[in-house]
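agent: user wants the full assembly modeled, not chains individually. Plan: 1) parse entity lines 2) check alphabet per entity 3) run joint structure prediction 4) return tokens. Steps 1-2 passed, two entities, 355 residues total. Proceeding.
--- entities ---
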Amino acid sequence: MPDTSQPIVSTPAAHSGFRDAVSEAGMVCLGFVPLGMGLGVLVTSHGLPWWLAPLLSGVVFAGSVEFILVGLLAASTPVLSIAATAFLVNSRHLFYGFSFPLERVNGPLAKTYSIYSLCDEAFALLSGHRGGKASSSQILWTQALLQISWVSGSVLGALLGSGFLGQVKGLGFLMVALFTILTIDAIRARPELSLVLCAAGAAVVALLIAPAQMLPIALGLFVVLLLARHWLEARRRRAAHGEAHHG
Amino acid sequence: MADVPYLLLGVGAAAAVTFALRAIPFALKGALKDSALLADLRSWMPLGAILILLVYAVSGVDFGGSSHGIPEVSGIVVTAGVHWWRRNAVLSMLAGTAVCLVLANLVF
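--- prediction returned ---
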């Protein structure tokens, strides 16, 4: 049963979706190649088969945990411990779905892929005002291009080894640059100091408590602060409403 | 050394956990439809989450190394400056990364 809610002629939209994805995410994809190469190099340097690199990068597709998995797999860590580690390191993903524009992705299969490939960078590039105008095809192309670059990089790294880009220092900076830019854009779109302070405070506290688990702790703290703020604002609204009625 | 079924099982377990974590909020969203809380989270989350990702990425910089993180900090300043000025993400990223790479590989 074809989805009749979609226009039959979808080529122009699909085309511009691809173009928009390339122009918004192209640099990040380029940055993913050397980072993925780092993962590939790590796999073969642990004496693991080269195909584990695309398997990790393509199937798990969750950044930092893949680097940890290489060490765990090389040490024959029990599968349950591997699952527990993946849960801890990736628990930050619990918070991304709430503001990711999945409703704009058309079709159940496409939605499933979009959830499946919802990495940090996809969340950062597509949520908030940036993703506010993104079409279904732009969202899917962005995620697919990120995944393709990451997997390609990991294969290159596993096959070529560290001789190629492994000598260049500082390539990881591309991700720092990306998040710097996205932070500036997010602040421009929503210049709200209290949000910046809450997030920065949560990040610093998490770094002080447990640097190794900084991301899940910081995001968890930040969400707790947002819940408190929501509750306070709701109570203030109710109080104001009550006053208007009674007095 | 390479026990293929073990490797497949390990990767499969990690992938299943990751997918479940990514899917849970969407499943909850159905139950929380039209909630004021969800609307607030949607509008407040992105800025804070992205800022936290930035702090996380910066915390990975090796400030104790021979370059003391000077290439990275210079790169951030250039990226932010160019982005504030031109509002062109590609240009900002190229400029900042170029500065960081040149300092890291040729100066320090």
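agent: reporting back. Chain A has two domains: 13-191, 192-247. Residues 1-10 of chain A have pLDDT under 50 and may be disordered.
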